[in-house]
Amino acid sequence: MLYSPLSKVSQTAQQYQNAVRRYKLLYKYNQDSLLQSFQNFAALLRKYHIESQIVPKDLNHDVFYYRDHSREPLNEIRNTFDRPELKDRLVTLERLYYKPNYLHPSIRIIFMIVVLSVWLLSFCCI
C-alpha cells in the first residue's frame, strides 16, 4: 500500500520500485543504510508532530533479526506510530502543494471586480 502515490507514475510501478528499494536495503546494502532510512523516517514523524515510539536502532535490530530467523514466530517489531494521523497529514500536504486554492469561490468574483476597478481607475486618473 502506498500512502500517497505520485500522480504521473502508475501505482504498480511505484510499488515495484519500493519493493526493489526494500530488497536492496535488506540484502544488498549494509545495516547502516537501513538505519539511516529509519532515522529519516523518525525525523519526518517528529517534524510533523506525529506520535511514535520508533527507536531506529531497535527497529533496525528487529528487522535484521527477523530477516535472518524467518522460521521463528514473529512476536512484534517495535514500529508503532499514529498511522491515521500520518495519512491525514500527507493528504493535507498533497492538497496544499498540488491542488492550491488561493481564492475561495465565494470571494473570487468580488476580488476580480475590485482588481479590475482599481486597474481602470488607475488608468483613468493618470
Computed over alpha carbons, the radius of gyration is: 24 Å
Distance between the termini: 61 Å
Averaged pLDDT, please? 79
List SSEs in N-to-C order.
Answer: HHHHH
Question: Using DSSP, what is the number of strands?
Answer: 0
Number of helices: 5
Report the uncertain regions.
none
Structural class: mainly alpha
* Biggest β-sheet strands, sense, barrel: none
Q: Describe the global form.
A: elongated
Percent strand:
under 5%
| Percentage of residues assigned to helices | 55-70%
Would you mind describing this structure in some detail?
The chain is mostly helical. Helix content is about 65%, strand content about 0%. Helix 2 (about 30-45) packs across helix 3. The mean pLDDT is about 80.
Task: Note the topology.
Blueprint: H1 11-28, H2 31-47, H3 56-68, H4 83-98, H5 105-125
Helix pairs in contact: 2-3
What is the structure about, briefly put?
The protein has 126 residues and is mainly alpha-helical. 67% of the residues lie in helices and 0% in strands.
Essential attributes:
single chain, 67% helix, 126 residues, mainly alpha
